[in-house]
Amino acid sequence: MAKFLYFFSFLMIFFGCKNETISSSKESISNVKQNEFAIIIHGGAGTILKENMSDEKEAAYKATLAEAIKVGHTILKYGGTSKEAVLKTIQVMEESPLFKAGKGAVFTHEETNELDASFMDGATLNAGAVAGVTNVKSPIELAIKIMTDSDHVMLSGKGASVFAKEKGLEIVDPSYFYTENRFKSLQRIKEREKTALDHDDKKAVFYDVDIKNSKFGTVGCVALDKQGNIAAGTSTGGMTNKRWGRIGDAPIIGSGTYANNKTCGVSSTGWGEYFIRSQVAYDISAQMEYQQKTLKEATTDVIQNKLTKLGGTGGVVALDKNGNMSFEFNTAGMYRAFMNDKGKLTVKIYK
Length: 351
Description:
Shape: globular
Largest sheet: 8 strands, mixed
CATH superfamily: (Glycosyl)asparaginase
Strand content: 15-25%
Distance between the termini: 61 Å
Number of domains: 1
Structural class: alpha+beta
Helix content: 40-55%
Number of helices: 10
CATH architecture: 4-Layer Sandwich
């Protein structure tokens, strides 16, 4: 009996130490500094298929993604802040008609452009957001200005435009955001919507590929600077054919954007209503903080499990406090790029 108790005690100690070693090993792996600084971006997700993309268009998207991320990477390389890197990187994409933010903003049902954006500082948990502006050239700049120069987190519509003008931001005529292909996309959707309603088939309109993709095209960026600070930002023109002042997830802190130096930074793109209901960006951070998950484990669970089960589509780019990167999406493709502290650039579009 004594021998049995001795042997049992030995096994308990042995396996206890082994489990502790495994646990410690996992903790040490997750806390290894992968990159001193890093940056990751997206330009929207959706039914992006190689067979539907011309070589010229693919090259144009990749070139703009590379241009944008190199701007932010250069800032980080020379000791600039993650805030500045996110701002300047997103502005490159806002000024490109390729993406559905800023210059390439999609049209509302009333044939106007209403823009949304948000920004969050992981060091302070301070944030700024704007919704439904029509004449501010850079919505992401306005979101940051709301964070730094007001007592508020979110401003919208005309009031946000007044604030932007008072703070010296560039105001443009709404026609600045007009692009012919976005306008034609709206007309196609409205025509198909009308045809479906004429045939009393109210559900048919939602199964059209063009209409499904009208929900995607947001741009976003997450950066980690040499000081260990994470920042995240997101900018969008919203959903093509949106009505009644609809606002998606992009300007919602915790849905479209979240950053916390303790965990990670996240920028989302997809069907905004589902991202709002799921609080996608914050959920990723929360799983890391409270369940001790790695960035990859958290992004996979939130996008491939929780969001997918709810019926939502889209994806995220994310960067943790140690410079680990993750891009997770449940669609056919997502415009994305990332650069590490070694200067290695990766640009991808398809799965």
